[in-house]
Design brief:
Elements: E1 2-4, H1 16-26, E2 31-34, E3 55-61, E4 64-71, E5 78-79, E6 81-82, E7 84-87, E8 95-99, E9 115-119, H2 125-134, E10 139-143, E11 153-165, H3 167-179, E12 185-194, E13 197-198, E14 217-220, E15 224-228, E16 231-235, H4 238-255, H5 261-270, H6 285-288, H7 295-300
Parallel strand pairs: 1-2, 2-3, 3-14, 7-11, 8-9, 9-10, 10-11
Antiparallel strand pairs: 3-13, 4-5, 4-12, 6-11, 8-12, 15-16
Helix pairs in contact: 4-5
Length: 326
């Protein structure tokens, strides 16, 4: 069995790592790979997540209380994305916010006792956070410098609170700070129960050229305790989700030793639980594949439905049939 918690942003079925996983699967090896962290746009799946025969895994949010940003004068709550390697966001009251520019020392005058809003880019993220810490800030909000969200992190653990927000939210907060020249801008952290939703960073399909649906399945990939030198660290990513599926595949193989990669993949996909968004609408297949893994159901499954290649063709005959997955 192979688990590849790695990838490149190349969306193509014939990328070398994708081809290698397909060949390994043909040789009887169960192959599992992360789908990528470039979501939430369609066509964002990367290689080797594009491998047609491997099990490509997206990330879902397990049950947890996630911190959200609430700005003065707004009822909107925006999820605060964890910055990997830093202290989890744990602020529990209203805090004053300053515009920390690009996170340079001169940008952070007046940061003491406040949350510093810092824009991504220019210098390393670690340097921005350390500059804010040295200036006496209580936490850092990293805003993206291009539209959308992003996954931020530092290579070595840093004992300071930080979180990331998207470009639009960061600009709104910055404009509010600039408009309140005489009064300080306040932000409030609220904690909202998140359960079985798609992680916003999880890459989406389809695969270019083939239009293959990817991911095949999703598993918890947010706030997952993982090993690091000298201990553990809560990490995010489809690289955290893929090992869940590798473990599920190992349990299935133990229960059904005669099954090959195709049967194991089918059992995982057939028994997955479709996820719905905050409005109660089911996520499309290009977002969640077959759904969130149900390990017990997969191990106990006996009847399998297989994925087969589909090719469009022209013809004059029409047939109608109904399918149900209830």
């Amino acid at each position: 069995m192979l688990n590849l918690s790695l990838g490149s942003p190349i969306n193509g079925p014939d990328w070398p790592t994708s081809t290698a996983l397909d060949r390994a699967t043909e040789a009887g090896i169960i192959t599992v790979t992360s789908n990528g962290n470039s979501g939430p746009d369609l066509w964002s799946v990367g290689s080797p997540g594009t491998a047609s025969k491997a099990i490509s895994v997206g990330a879902s949010t397990p049950p947890l209380k996630a911190p959200h940003l609430k700005m003065d004068g707004s009822d909107e709550h925006v999820l605060l994305q964890a910055v990997q390697g830093t202290k989890p966001w744990d602020l529990k009251r209203k805090n004053r916010v300053i515009d920390g520019g690009m996170g340079l020392p001169d940008d952070l005058e007046g940061a003491e006792g406040r949350v510093a809003l810092i824009e991504r880019g220019g210098i390393p993220i670690r340097a921005k956070i350390e500059n804010a810490k040295n200036a006496g800030a209580v936490a850092v909000l990293l805003m993206n410098n291009v539209p959308g969200t992003f996954m931020a992190g530092v290579e070595e653990p840093l004992a300071f609170t930080a979180a990331a927000i998207d470009h639009k939210t960061g600009n709104q907060l910055r404009e509010q700070i600039q408009a309140n020249e005489d009064d300080e801008t306040m932000m409030e952290t609220t904690y909202i129960e998140e359960t079985d939703h798609m992680a916003i960073f999880s890459s989406r399909g389809p695969v270019t050229q083939t239009w293959d649906i990817k991911p095949d399945v999703v598993a918890p990939g947010v706030d997952i305790d993982s090993t690091v030198p000298d201990g553990y660290l809560a990490l995010n990513g489809t690289s955290m989700a893929a090992p869940h599926i590798a473990g599920a595949a190992a349990l299935i193989k133990q229960a059904k030793p005669d099954w090959g990669p195709e049967q194991v993949k089918a059992a995982i996909m057939n028994t997955a639980v479709p996820l719905v968004n905050e409005e109660g609408d089911r996520y499309p297949p290009f977002v969640q594949g077959s759904g969130r893994v149900d390990i017990q159901a997969a191990v106990l499954s006996d009847t399998l439905v297989y994925q087969v290649p589909f090719h469009l063709a022209c013809g004059t005959q029409i047939r109608t049939f109904n399918c149900s997955n209830d």
